[in-house]
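Justification of computing resources. Each target in the renewal requires a structure prediction run like the one illustrated here; the chain below, 583 residues long, is used simply to show the kind of job we budget for.
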Amino acid sequence: MTIATDSLLLALLVGVVAIIAIAVVTVLGQRLGVAGPLLLVGLGIAFALITRIEVRIDPEIILIGVLPPLLYSAAVQLPAIEFRRDFGPIAGLSVLLVVISSLVLGLFFWMVIPSVGLALGVALGAILSPTDAVATSIVKRLGISPRVVTMLEGESLLNDATALVILRTATVALASSFAFGNAIGAFAWGVLIAVVIGAIVGWLALRLRSWVGSSAANTAISIAVPFLAYLPTEHFGGSGLVAAVVAGIVTGQGAPRRLTPEQRLSDTMNWRTIELVLEGAVFLVMGLELRDIVATNADTDNLWHPAWLALSALGIILAIRAVYVTGLVWTQSRRARRYDRERLEGFTARIDQMQAGEVEIPQRRGFPTDPVGRERRFASVRRRVSRLLTDIDYYQASPLGWRHGTIIVWAGMRGVVTLAAAQTLPRDDPNVTQRALLVFVAFLVAFFSLMLQGFTLPWVVRALGLRGSGAEAVSSEERARLDEQLREAAAAVLAGGGLTQRDGTPFSEDFVARVGERMSRAPDDDQTALAHEMVQLRLIAIEAMRTRLDELGHDGSFSTAALRHALAELDADQLSLELRLDD
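Resulting structure tokens:
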């Protein structure tokens, strides 16, 4: 009993010291201008070499206990509008590029490593192919184009599913024949069940959290959501990581409507803390495991051989990625130039003429003949055209050039996912030869990728002249347009009449008119103490603004950054006003 207690106290002490180290190193990295994760890897290496403590973390802890909450948290913050607009390129990076990289790397390892068959080579290629969502967090601090950041984030959130399906398929093929149709079917089923379960879990969790009310209890439920999505999906043969991502996207889109400002603020702060600790922990563990992995291979092989294999594999990965991204950038640039905005605007004008009766409506099968049905169809078509017009503006305002392509290539780092997936290779399978070597090669690829690309990425961004190009994601002009829309929504609800206070007492019409006139103007600097009734009217106006904000979030007229900034302002204003009502 004493031994167990001493072990528990030692583990607790190590955990406390690790959390403090993560916090201090993160702040130190910000002041030095170096990404904190890179410093944590170095700290882990130094600590392992000095103390000679052996650290072995079960890879399942990373794959099940760490990645689902990290991917969920990143998905909650993913800009959904921009993600939809670039879903095609993101899907290509997440699926097609991973498949190509896995196959090419598989051929390479098959040819250069004796006794490693093609299936095992492809398995290792799948382990090395996906970019790491945690490592991609380094990119977000550099102020590059928001479109590039969204593409990198989306890729790193989704490509794990492709890589793990290929890894499973290749592992099965070690003992039996490989069936291409079965592999495609397994991938399709894994994604489909993940999307369904992730969406259901996210939807149900949002409704439960809106009913709970308490901010602390709400956050506690949110911590369970990624695991609630992950576990049943894995049980049914799907990708639990994709399910966690889908649940996060559903949560991120529904939170402004379902959760209170206090709940959202509590959620944000608590998840930032969780991200900081988990991200720091995985990089720290990565450094701590170096000595043990090196020692295992030093007894059986020349260290120069795995180092050469890792550097060659990293070179192949970057070369394939560069070729693919070159084609991607060219395709996207051509697509942006091909759009004809004037033609779409002319189509919108023709729809208006049809609706006004100035132009005859063509008789087509399925077109409603009743007036109500026609109005709904016209409104639906107008919304689709309006969304397409805003998409065109987005593509033309944020074009992808060769400099952005260079960043997409160089920012595709490998990280802890690669190391954790490598350690899932079977230990006692006679078909898995030189397992220690393969795990070491995977570790070196991740290590070299983080050190080489991570440390040089800021320099590459500066050399290309992209630093700060995306730092100000919300322009003053866009913010002014959005504020005008919200003021109009507030004035409209106040002008509608029939408003009552919390106790049911109606507001004075003259008082509502004065407040409505004030709300229709941009705010000035002369802020005076507000009466109790005016505070309640402002809360009604804020609710109308939030409703309008949700509508604007669906048509793509404004960027996600602008919408989130406006929502944060409304939340802060509401919290301040509610405190006044409680006094």
